[in-house]
């Protein structure tokens, strides 16, 4: 699989996600946000975590309008994979690739901690290596992870099975107490209708080594490499 990791001014997890992709067997090109084209044969575009443009205006708002986002949108329209992690999720929402928006965390505090998630479905290109009902232990680090969409959009996401992950406790219970940022329905990540675009706030790329915290993030990259599409 050929991946293109986009770097914006203020990105800081581009190296981490490149490492996770290479560990899983992908080849990785590093692309600057001002570029207008993706390398030929790109399968996956990754918008990494960080603080693009210092989170000014609204987080992701400036990066969402970067040159490379036109090529990224065209790639997604062709059915190509686009993965937005944390600031990348904020950017894909701002770019119109996914609906809704990430607001300031409900308590207005930056949250940096371990967090359990439910894997809502395992028949997608991003989650086929996980087992049905699996609860994964990853980490979160954000100030603006409070996912909000209008009532109609939220009903569509739920009705069409487009919620990818939810914040949960260690037993997989999706409760208000396990919600770190106030997101509606404990939503931690969502898919596009064709399941080729995924945006999520947690950082699977930082859970790929048992020496540094665990390996529950590996499943996402292994899923992509397996080449299995949605059922
Ligand atoms: N780790 C990150 O990507 C941070 C995301 C974002 N800039 C925030 O604080 O909400």
UniProtKB/TrEMBL annotation:
Pathway: Purine metabolism; IMP biosynthesis via de novo pathway; 5-amino-1-(5-phospho-D-ribosyl)imidazole from N(2)-formyl-N(1)-(5-phospho-D-ribosyl)glycinamide: step 1/2. It comes from Bosea psychrotolerans. It is found in: Cytoplasm. It comes from the Bacteria. GO terms for biological process: 'de novo' IMP biosynthetic process. Part of the phosphoribosylformylglycinamidine synthase complex involved in the purines biosynthetic pathway. Catalyzes the ATP-dependent conversion of formylglycinamide ribonucleotide (FGAR) and glutamine to yield formylglycinamidine ribonucleotide (FGAM) and glutamate. The FGAM synthase complex is composed of three subunits. PurQ produces an ammonia molecule by converting glutamine to glutamate. PurL transfers the ammonia molecule to FGAR to form FGAM in an ATP-dependent manner. InterPro entries: Class_I_gatase-like, PRibForGlyAmidine_synth_PurQ. The keyword ATP-binding applies. This is Phosphoribosylformylglycinamidine synthase subunit PurQ. Its EC number is 6.3.5.3, 3.5.1.2.
